[in-house]
Amino acid sequence: MSVIPVKGTHDLYALDASKNRYVREMFKNAALLYGYHELSVPVMEYTEIFQRGAGESSDIVRKEMYTFLDKGNRSVTLRPEFTAGVMRAIVSNKLYATEDLPMKIFYEGPAFRYERPQLGRYRQFTQFGVEAIGLDSAAMDGETILLAIQAFALLGFEHLSIKINTLGDEESRKNYKKALKAYFSEHIDEMCPDCHERMNINPLRMLDCKVEHDQEIAKNAPKIKDYLSVASEERFYKTLSILNSMDIDYEVDDGLVRGLDYYSEVVFEIHAKSESGNDYGALCGGGHYSNLIKQFGGPDMSGVGFAVGVERVVSLMEELSLFPDLDEGIDAYIIPVGEEMAEKAFELTTSLRMEGFKTETPLYAGKLGSLLKKAVKRNAKYAIIIGEEEYARGVCQIKDLSKAEQQEIKIEDLRDALDALIIQKGE
Ligand code: HAM
């Protein structure tokens, strides 16, 4: 039997798990600042939710989904992203009718894509994301981008590269796709088999083909900015002016089309450089979409959102030393000295835990020296030593493990003393 984890998946233990949680917590804090509420959706949906949501022409749907038949012979897919499932949940629960609009939702959890595992690219990864539904405006788009930027600032990022583009409205994209088709039809013989298919389903996808020669051809393709309707152009400039008014640096990247089919109007990605030159890809990507809710049988409502790849953010934060000390340790390690004292130490530990102190005890009596070493290993602030003779007098020793200081204290005063010492230490 192999004990190797499935290719592209990882186990996260202790500090690694804390780092993943810390990034999600900071994004959640930012989302709460902007008035978002959590929505928890299932890890799997019926396959057509993603086929119709993410779109038949996206690489995700064509090549990367973990899809299987359940025992009832229904095709089910592990979510490759959240947006489609979130829209399905909004329609299933008729949230659009009961919630105040815009409905602002955040979510987090694992997502699954059958990609070639490499730096920053896994088969199971964690996303944190937001969606704001029911207010179709450049201001809502701008606010969403600001939320992402603020979350990265909370994490300590200083130099972000924000790429932004517009895909225009339906009419703009229709004209643009026509122009792309005309351009690519002159080069199609030199292009990869995937691009032959993309040409028929959605020529926009040819712009982010990974094949080098195809990328060269795509460089000279027509640009969306020349096909925008007046309304889409105005809307894009309004969003940019919101970023300008907040002094946000961004780069308009007219090659940015994003890999999912649902986008219309603004799209954006956030990248950050690592000091070692490692490229983790986009840390975060998102944009505006018009048809998802309607496609799932709900009203004609648009939305805007983004998702961040938590593992990529963690890797970069490690490289840039942005994590605070997450190894919190415990408040006190209670050391029984003498066989009789193990039970008393356990009672004391339990009562301190009830009072809200993080405490541990070895559950056996051992040698003082080795248990003090254990207390240090456990990253305890204090060791509380209870011996038989002292216990009989109603006292114990409290030792500050960062200094060589020790004092005797009445057991009944322990709670208050520990409280005061911990407050002092924090200052
Ligand atoms: P996405 O660009 O496909 O967008 O994914 C968002 C982020 O997830 C990426 O920027 C990246 O950081 C991370 N990510 C994607 N694939 C992997 C992978 N294989 N390994 C590690 N990290 C990965 C979406 O998923 C959209 N649903 C975002 C959105 C929300 N748009 C509107 N609302």
Topology (elements, then pairings):
Blueprint (H helix, E strand, L loop, with lengths): L14 H19 L3 E2 L5 E3 H8 L4 H6 L1 E4 L5 E4 L4 H10 L2 H4 L4 E10 L11 E10 L4 H17 L5 E7 L3 H16 L7 H9 L10 H8 L10 H16 L5 E2 L10 E10 L11 E6 L2 H4 L7 E7 H10 L10 E8 L3 H14 L4 E2 L7 H10 L2 E8 H5 L2 E6 L4 E6 L3 H13 L1
Parallel strand pairs: 1-5, 7-8, 12-13, 12-14
Antiparallel strand pairs: 2-4, 3-4, 5-6, 6-11, 7-9, 9-10, 10-11, 14-15, 15-16
Helix pairs in contact: 1-6, 1-12, 2-4, 6-10
What does this entry show, briefly?
This protein is α+β, with helices and mostly antiparallel strands. The protein has 16 helices and 16 strands.
The major sheet is characterized as: 8 strands, mixed
How would the global form be characterised?
elongated
Strand content: 15-25%
Number of strands: 16
Q: Output the strand order for the largest sheet.
A: 1-5-6-11-10-9-7-8
Mean pLDDT: 94
Number of helices: 16
**Helical coverage, percent range:** 25-40%
Which residues form runs of ≥5 with pLDDT under 50?
none
Radius of gyration: 28 Å
Q: Structural class per helix/strand content?
A: alpha+beta
Describe what you observe in this structure.
- The strands form three sheets. An eight-stranded mixed β-sheet has the order 1-5-6-11-10-9-7-8. Strands 13-12-14-15-16 form a five-stranded mixed β-sheet, sandwiched between helices. It has a three-stranded antiparallel β-sheet with strand order 2-4-3, covered by helices on one side.
- It starts with 14 loop residues before the first helix and ends with a helix.
- Strand 3 and strand 4 form a beta hairpin.
- By secondary structure, it is an alpha+beta fold.
- The mean pLDDT is 94.
- It is elongated, with a radius of gyration of 28 Å.
- The chain contains 16 helices and 16 strands.
- It has helices spanning 15-33, 47-54, 59-64, 83-92, 95-98, 138-154, 170-185, 193-201, 212-219, 230-245, 292-295, 310-319, 341-354, 368-377, 388-392, 414-426, and strands at residues 37-38, 44-46, 66-69, 75-78, 103-112, 124-133, 160-166, 251-252, 263-272, 284-289, 303-309, 330-337, 359-360, 380-387, 395-400, 405-410.
- Helix 1 (15-33) packs across helix 12, helix 2 crosses helix 4 (83-92) and helix 6 runs parallel beside helix 10 (230-245).
- The longest helix is centred in the first third of the chain and has 19 residues, at 15-33.
- Bound molecules: histidyl-adenosine monophosphate (HAM).
- The site of histidyl-adenosine monophosphate (HAM) has 27 residues, from strand 6, strand 10, strand 11 and helix 12.
